[in-house]
Prior knowledge:
By secondary structure, chain A is mainly alpha-helical.
Amino acid sequence: MTPRETYTNIFVESFGVDASALDERFVYQCVPTWDSVGHMSMIAALEDAFDIALEVDDIVDFSSFTKGMDILGKYGVNL
Amino acid sequence: MANLEYSHCRIAGISVSVPERVRRSEEFTDFIGEEGVDKFIKTVGIVQGHICDEQMTCSDLCADAAERLMTDLDIDRQSIDALLFVSQTPDYIAPSTACVLQHRLGLSEECLAYDINLACSGYVYGVSAAMSYLQTRGINRVLLLAGDTVSKHCSPEDRALTMLSTDAGSATLLERSGDSQPAGRFTLRTQGQGFRSLIVPFGGYRHRFGNTTRVEIEPGVSRCDYDGYMDGTEVFRFSVMEVPKLFKAFYEHFDIDASTIAQFFLHQANLFILGNVAKRVKIDKAQLPISIDRYGNTGAATIPTTICDHYARDTAAEVSDLVLLCGFGIGLSLGIGTVTLDRTRILPIGICTTRFDDRIDALHEDAKPFINA
């Protein structure tokens, strides 16, 4: 599985959405499942999958599907 | 800087009481679905918690814990010189619940009693306040009662808060001792600019009367003016950024060697926050007891609950250990400390079934005429 596929799958599983919904419009709280609990669950899954530890500011700034890709790039995860 | 060090005192015993009713997170399946519950358990860490009914309050839980502790330690109630009640869920706007508890527990009228209005950081502040009294000649024993009925603070239709919030009350007896070694060291801090991040906005005197009708704020979240509000992002940022800074300042100020600490008892905010804080301050998981899975987030009671659950899950124990306490949350308020448990009696968590009848309906009937006829 490519890093991009892993990233997409984590969003699909964390928020119960179809992969086709994941674009620049997929942002925090755009679906009921992306609330604070869903956010923590998603971050924990990303940290496990890519073996990284996100800084607090990055966890808080992780506000959309596309922004998350930029943030993961800082940790050497190129999507 | 609020850096405090105390000697010549010890924690004689700790007990915790919870209500009988157990609420399992699975009960929210209709609300957030089976998958949502599974994710909640995995991320927040709460499998179940104990919940009070309408009639039971935090003071009932604390009184039950105190009764069991004083009986177990065979304490003369007249020997208790101070009673501190730490909670954000008191019985009344006024008077201090501590005054009612002094009466209920049969303590001396020479006992000072008052409330401390703190929650998540409250146990650390309470132990520090109790130890500070024990530095003076006139106080030999302090009964610290700390707890919350957090479940009553929040809307049942606020999924993030209601699933997190549970109830417990604790009793900790502290007394003077002859030991000149440090019994407790504390660093206490406040970031009041964050007061809006965790708040019960109405019902006090800034906003006395509000709307009691719950309205939908966002999908799955309905609140009225009297329900608790939490800005999850700000609380997370505060917890994960400020608590590690607090650890660092505390360790540096007191020249603490973390390897000498046996256990780290942190406020059980949620599992994700606990894990993040532990990772940043390098706490080994084996030294980070967890009780949130079975008792939830009980505000001022999470630290003593975790202590009792860790040391006395099945049977009472006598414990001598250097332990760290750290509480952080509403205020925003935070505190950290190390305390030396010295033959401290720790009781298993008990179930409270008693409810105080304050005869409030007879308030006016009981009023005596100013002048006897």
